[in-house]
Amino acid sequence: MKYFVLTFLPCVLLYPFLIKLFRKYHIGQFIREEGPDLHGYKTGTPTMGGILFAFFGALSCFVFGYTIDALAIALFAFIGFLDDLLSVLRKKSLGLRAWQKLSLQLLFASILVFLIKPDTKLQIPFTHGELDLGKFYWVFAVLLIAGLSNASNLTDGLDGLAASVFLTGAIPYWFLLGKSADSLILLSLCLMAFLFYNIKPAKIFMGDTGSLVLGALMGTVAVRTSTELLALLFTSVFIVETLSVMIQVSSYKLFKRRVFKMSPIHHHFELLGWKEERIVQVFSLTNLLVSMLAVLGEIS
């Protein structure tokens, strides 16, 4: 109950006021020009909604003793806030440049790994095997946190998608790890409140302020609990979304051909005629299925 009072309750009560405030001051979303024409109606929808669930997520993590996880939420929310703020001020979808965002992600991920001081051995899922990366582990850990942050950011393109996919990975992940991963439940409760206002038609978007936080927290928990490879299963849709972008860009640069109608891959399905609601449902259920298989594989 104490988790509920400090997370879900204030978020679900405060979002209507935040939506009104952002509408009043025209803090709205600018849809990127290369995006699907189907999204034009979303222009002007209040954005930066992640500021509320990130704040209460970080606050609750700090109050209940998950200091490093609280720091991860705060740092990556800060990157996203800068990106969203610049986008609003410039009145275009471009905020921080890609190299600026990535530089901050790598810097903050490095700080988190330094504070965690993790073991350099990777646990191989579903076995008792280990792989000692030695000094290379630090590079791997930093790239994992920054990479998952980017992955969740890429997934945030449809109403309710990033939040739903996160929940279908975070809750089973918490079930497996237990109290050491309570930060996942704390942020999940905040995110559930956000979803009341983000399911299509969205009244507010999380923006980069929120989307960068989701993967960053999953990566931080993974490094802190030595479940780095296992975390990739709980974020399978995030990974696929990222791979779709990498494949699309590589194919076009090398062969001048596109593999998908548009990337990230959720836009490909949109252009195939799938409704947003169906994409969100299928992607979330797929992530949940892989997450449950991961849990069953670990406990069996």
Topology:
Layout: H1 2-6, H2 8-24, H3 50-63, H4 67-90, H5 98-116, E1 121-123, E2 130-132, H6 136-155, H7 161-177, H8 182-198, H9 207-224, H10 228-234, H11 236-255, H12 265-271, H13 276-299
Antiparallel strand pairs: 1-2
Descriptive terms for the model:
2% strand; 2 strands
Instruction: Please give the domain count.
Output: 1
What separation lies between the terminal Cα atoms? Answer: 31 Å
* Biggest β-sheet strands, sense, barrel: 2 strands, antiparallel
Please count the helical segments. Answer: 13
Global structural class: mainly alpha
Rg from Cα: 18 Å
Total number of strands: 2
The oligomeric state of the chains shown is: single chain
Order of helices and strands: HHHHHEEHHHHHHHH
**What form results from the Cα inertia axes?**
globular
Mean pLDDT: 94
Low-confidence stretches: none
Estimate what percentage of residues fall within beta strands: under 5%
How are the strands of the largest sheet arranged?
1-2
